[in-house]
Amino acid sequence: MAIIEINNLTKEFGSLTALDCVALKLEKGQIVGLLGPNGSGKTTLIKILNGLLTPTAGNVTIDGMAPGVETKKIVAYLPDRNALPDYMTTDKLIGLYEDFFTDFNRAKAEQMIDDLGIDRNQVLKKMSKGTKEKLQLCLVMAREAEVYLLDEPIGGVDPATRDYILRTIISNYNQDAVVLISTHLIADIESVLDDVVFIKEGRVVLHKTAEEIREEKGESVDQLFREVFRC
Q1: C-alpha 116 chain-centroid distance
Q2: How far, in whole angstroms, is CA 194 from its chain's centroid?
Q3: How large is the greatest C-alpha to C-alpha distance in the chain, in angstroms?
Q4: Given this model, what pLDDT does residue 202 score?
Q5: Domains delineated in the chain
Q6: I want to staple 193 with a disulfide (CB 3.0 to 4.6 A). Which of 6, 33, 65, 71 is the partner?
Q7: 11, 19 Cβ separation under 8 angstroms
Q8: CB within 8 Å of 84: residues ≥ 6 apart
Q9: Phi, psi dihedrals of residue 124, rounded to the nearest 5°
């Protein structure tokens, strides 16, 4: 049974149609790439799944529930920009997540944060943009969630840190969960993907496993992406 079900989902902002009749089902136990250029609707879709936006038409369910208070208990969300209180230290932020989420694993968070050399006593506003992004990812991935929604998790960090982040995602997510990674940096994440969704101008134009793409097309996900989204 699919844990995420999206049926005829449309989202309009005035005269702009950000999502157009999107239909999608995602199963547990896989890492899914939500792939498309900037402005294709990726962030809008993730925000609807997280309950931050409401659809214009159609519907979304997570584990049979509409996005809301109950789904937030099983969904770990990484936004595409920092959403943490910038006056708090790393340790205070760990405590904040521990208070808010019953599935938060403090020991796992501390291990990831120490691995990255993030100062536990430094306040967020004094950190670099890359360090903020790493810290936010550590806090999200320390949850034992059923759904992980990661919006551009590797967009603002250097290549070496990207490798660490991908290893962190692979080794720390709940194996019975689904991880949805939104990005346009295909080559960097292709090796971890089980399932691939291409989204273009608000429409899903392809949904296949990464292995099917390689076998049927005889090319990598990155190569196919470049063909589909060629300017």
Answers
A1: 20
A2: 14
A3: 51
A4: 95
A5: 2-81+146-228 (3.40.50.300)
A6: 33
A7: yes
A8: 93, 124, 132, 135, 136, 139
A9: -60, -40
Residue 174 and residue 11 in contact, taking contact as beta carbons nearer than 8 Å: no
Q: How far apart are CA 164 and CA 3, in angstroms?
A: 28
DSSP string, 97-113: HHHH-TTB-HHHHHHHH
pLDDT digits (tens, 9 = 90+) for 17-63: 999 999 999 999 999 999 998 889 999 999 999 999 999 999 999 99
The neighbouring-strand residues paired with 60 are: 6
Q: Is the separation of the CB atoms in 29 and 175 below 8 Å?
A: yes
Using alpha carbons, list the distances in angstroms from residue 2 to 27, 161, 204: 4, 32, 17
Residue 220 Cα to chain centre, angstroms:
21
> Mean pLDDT over all residues of the chain?
90
Q: Among residues 89, 67, 85, 93, which one has the least CA distance to residue 4?
A: 67
At 23, list the tokens.
């239909």
What residues form DSSP beta bridges with 4? 26, 62
